[in-house]
Amino acid sequence: MVMREIQVADQSLVVFELDDLCDSVTGRALTGAWVWDSALVLAEWLAAAQDQLEFSLRGKSVIELGAGAGLPGLAAALLGASRVVLTDVGALIPGLRKNVEANGLGDRVEVSELVWGSDESVGELGEFELVLMSDVFFDAEDMAALAKTLRKVCKRGTRIWAASEGRPWTGECLNELEKEGFGIVELASELAPLVGAKEESDSVSLYSLIPPYVGDNVIAVGVSEFVTNMEPNNYE
Fold this sequence. Notes:
By secondary structure, the chain is α/β, with parallel strands linked by helices. The chain is built from 8 helices and 11 strands.
């Protein structure tokens, strides 16, 4: 187990990485228990968005999908969100709870096991104003299930921000989400100034996903409402 202290705005978060956690079936290390560069960039983006994008987290409801060690969601709570739910597969839940406790955020941060595409695991969580994801674009075959979960947790006006390292299969995953009706706006060219052009931002792209429908109601709003004062780029 490795403890890291990470600065978010002018405050610190303690995050424990479970470097000895392995998949019970394959025996491979569960890399989701580590803090990746995309999580660092997304956490910094949240801090920058408070001023640069005039988007206040204060009082907002936030869910992080595929939370891993939970850094972006914890950062949202630190920056004023009133309810944050960190979700991931069962093996990562103890580590998420430990990180919530280590930062004294138990009054506003919940931890919940969530399998993408499952009605049972998402039904009681409710809808959120902001969805966060970092490094979840790995397998294109998982995107239909992710899209189903996104529709369940979104409501009219929900924002979805995702950070991902550039990999050969990232575009394929985004294409699958487009087929599911989600708009994709890449903010990569605008990312460096907002996060101070740090080294880890060089290989990370930030995306705004615009959700299509909830039930019979269109919930997608104009791209300008998601990315104030930014010019969208095609991610391909």
